[in-house]
Amino acid sequence: MNEIAQKKATFLGIVPLLVFVLTFLGSGIYNNDFYALPSPIAAMIGIVAAFVLFKGSVSGKMDVFLKGCGDGKILTMCIIYLLAGAFATVSKASGSIDAIVQMGMDYISPAYFAAGVFVIASFLSFASGTSVGSIVTLAPVVLEMARQSHTPLGLPAAALLCGAMFGDNLSIISDTTIAATQSVGCEMRDKFRANFKLALPAALLAIALFVWAAPEASSVQSSTTSLPYNPLLIAPYLLVILLAVAGVNVFVTLFLGLVSAGVLGITMGSLDFMQFTKSSYEGFTSMSEIFFLSLLTGGLAALVDRAGGIRFILTGIQRLIGSERTALLGVGGLVSLTNLCMANNTISILISGKVSKEIGDNYALDPKDTASVLDIFACYVQGLVPYGAQILLLISLSSYTLGFSELFFQAYYLHLLLAITLLYILFKPAKKSPAHA
């Protein structure tokens, strides 16, 4: 036999995927750090397990693996990662991110400290596409302002967490958005519009709650020094947002954003041409882990699919699914459970994406709904899992004066986003009968 047996639902087919997940999870628990073991190495261990366990020749399995790595959606995802990384790095080097932070801090009213932190973090994370980067950028300033004004750290820290996850979920240059849309075959602009309709009311209600929950905010007095900044430096981010909303091709959008950030930096003297090229390359290399992980998980998913693993998972989930609504809940539950194990929303979406695509095809789900549910549920779990990078960062940057319960119970936006999404799923009009037999 030269190739892996054709699809037939078997438990053995999912064993390599379980090896990958359990290796990643076990290492995280053992090291008390879910990022101690590089995720591409965990994926490689799963791939080795597939080559050992599955029947067929090595050349046949290698053909299946390489076809999975070279899948058009996987390669598209990888190129987008590179452009997104370059844009974020060049924007930082040109001073655009510092300008956004400073402008936001200048316009925060002391009476609305937590709400203002949420808005600034939301804009920054949407513009940069990274929750971790937004927390790293803003946390030192936010936490110091809270300390100097004798404001309890919990509320502004929770507001920062929520704002960081807002952009992580919505931004077109977020790796979760890229992974969700490419996995289920959805246009980014369609997913953005569908996702935004759920995120906007959650964000507005969260702002009201952040204001309501901070009666002592009127006594907040910032002692941080206002630094000069050029508002023009915000232009590359505004350009990317406008092009994305207008539906311009994502490659064109990111390339024009990268070029505009570079030209602005060179014009204003914060960069020269060689620094621009080096910063762009640094952006490429900053995405190396997710780049390699996408390629390797694409190959692993192809092996698992060919051996009947995906069919086994799908068959199990379908026993619990009886309608379009329960199909969407199944997608949300699948990515949530995966994220609880992985503590990484991008990895969870990559793992769950192929099964979610099949569920969507079988039950005639709108791809934009499937992509939104994938991203929202992964965002919710990632933002609140106690061993996730976001909460661990906030707790460590606060010198461990923050508690998990403070962040969890005051993360109003995340709880509202989940509630609104569940209401949408449960009460949305049925489109048509399921397409499955």
Automatic annotation (TrEMBL):
<feature type="transmembrane region" description="Helical">
    <location>
        <begin position="287"/>
        <end position="307"/>
    </location>
</feature>
<dbReference type="GO" id="GO:0005886">
    <property type="term" value="C:plasma membrane"/>
</dbReference>
<dbReference type="Pfam" id="PF03553">
    <property type="entry name" value="Na_H_antiporter"/>
</dbReference>
<keyword id="KW-0813">Transport</keyword>
<feature type="transmembrane region" description="Helical">
    <location>
        <begin position="198"/>
        <end position="214"/>
    </location>
</feature>
<keyword id="KW-1133">Transmembrane helix</keyword>
<feature type="transmembrane region" description="Helical">
    <location>
        <begin position="372"/>
        <end position="395"/>
    </location>
</feature>
<comment type="similarity">
    <text>Belongs to the NhaC Na(+)/H(+) (TC 2.A.35) antiporter family.</text>
</comment>
<feature type="transmembrane region" description="Helical">
    <location>
        <begin position="234"/>
        <end position="266"/>
    </location>
</feature>
<feature type="transmembrane region" description="Helical">
    <location>
        <begin position="9"/>
        <end position="29"/>
    </location>
</feature>
<feature type="domain" description="Na+/H+ antiporter NhaC-like C-terminal">
    <location>
        <begin position="238"/>
        <end position="425"/>
    </location>
</feature>
<keyword id="KW-0050">Antiport</keyword>
<keyword id="KW-0812">Transmembrane</keyword>
<dbReference type="InterPro" id="IPR052180">
    <property type="entry name" value="NhaC_Na-H+_Antiporter"/>
</dbReference>
<keyword id="KW-1003">Cell membrane</keyword>
<feature type="transmembrane region" description="Helical">
    <location>
        <begin position="407"/>
        <end position="427"/>
    </location>
</feature>
<dbReference type="GO" id="GO:0015297">
    <property type="term" value="F:antiporter activity"/>
</dbReference>
<feature type="domain" description="Na+/H+ antiporter NhaC-like C-terminal">
    <location>
        <begin position="11"/>
        <end position="212"/>
    </location>
</feature>
<dbReference type="InterPro" id="IPR018461">
    <property type="entry name" value="Na/H_Antiport_NhaC-like_C"/>
</dbReference>
<protein>
    <submittedName>
        <fullName>Na+/H+ antiporter NhaC family protein</fullName>
    </submittedName>
</protein>
<keyword id="KW-0472">Membrane</keyword>
<feature type="transmembrane region" description="Helical">
    <location>
        <begin position="35"/>
        <end position="54"/>
    </location>
</feature>
<feature type="transmembrane region" description="Helical">
    <location>
        <begin position="111"/>
        <end position="143"/>
    </location>
</feature>
<feature type="transmembrane region" description="Helical">
    <location>
        <begin position="74"/>
        <end position="91"/>
    </location>
</feature>
